[in-house]
Write a structure and sequence with these properties.
Oligomer: single chain
Mean pLDDT: 90
Number of strands: 2
Helix content: 25-40%
Low-confidence stretches: none
Largest sheet: 2 strands, antiparallel
Shape: elongated
Number of helices: 4
Order of helices and strands: HEEHHH
Length: about 90
């Protein structure tokens, strides 16, 4: 038995085939993205493997707004307000 099939790095799934059931080992999906400030889960960021993310367009990988895919909308609003208020002329 191979090491990768012994560990839980790969998830196990039973696949129905014509000749019977077959066990396949698939990579686990990554966790949800989290905001760097609040720690909330990020909306609009897919939970996909890097191979699938590579083929996706940039607009579907993260939201089209400032700090999209890095900060939550609440934290983003706070940062933009803070920048506008502390702007020195």
């Amino acid at each position: 038995m191979q090491h990768k099939t012994k560990s839980r790095t790969f998830r196990r799934q039973n696949l129905r085939t014509v000749s019977g059931t077959k066990r396949v080992y698939l990579r686990r999906k990554p966790k949800l993205g989290r905001c760097g400030v609040t720690g909330q889960t990020l909306k609009g960021v897919p939970r996909e493997l890097p191979v699938k993310m590579k083929g996706m367009p940039k607009t579907s990988k993260r939201p089209e707004r400032p700090f999209g895919g890095v900060l939550s909308s609440k934290a983003m609003r706070f940062v933009l307000k803070d920048k506008a208020r502390n702007k020195e002329l």
